[in-house]
Amino acid sequence: MYKFALAFVLAVTLLVEFRESSADYINGKVLVTINNTLSNNKKLIVHCKNKDDDLGTVDIAPRHAYQFYANKSSRENTSYNCDFTFDNKLHWFHVYDQNIDSSFCRKVCYYEADENRICRYLSFMKNDMRYRQCFKWNRY
């Protein structure tokens, strides 16, 4: 009887611990960082928003970064889209989509933006190097 009670208490404790850590992960925040790697000291103008929040427009100086927190949700998908302006051209990119990116960006989504593409550096290492995915710019 004692072993059964001990096993039951241990199982309940582990279940509660798992549920709390899962809730923290799901309802946590992801830091989205966008680094300006444009050539010739050009500024990068960024405007990010989701369906509930407009984060406004920011000018990112050359070799500087802009950061914001994307709040994960357990009830619905969190998604942020950003407009990028440089060289008098407007581009857009989905910088965070919880359904897609939560496996890639566990706590941080780090991007580098240049004239040709935007690259996301993934949270995990591959062959002792940070792995990255690059995407061509979406145009309006």
From TrEMBL:
Annotated InterPro entries? Self-incomp_S1
Top-rank taxon, per record? Eukaryota
- Give GO BP annotations, semicolon-separated: rejection of self pollen
Q: Where in the cell is it found?
A: Secreted
Q: Where is the signal peptide?
A: 1-23
Which Pfam family, an example, fits this chain? Self-incomp_S1
Q: Where is it mainly found?
A: secreted
Q: Which GO terms describe its cellular component?
A: extracellular region
Q: Which UniProt keywords apply?
A: Secreted, Self-incompatibility, Signal
Entry similarity comment: Belongs to the plant self-incompatibility (S1) protein family.
Give the protein name, as stated in the record.
S-protein homolog
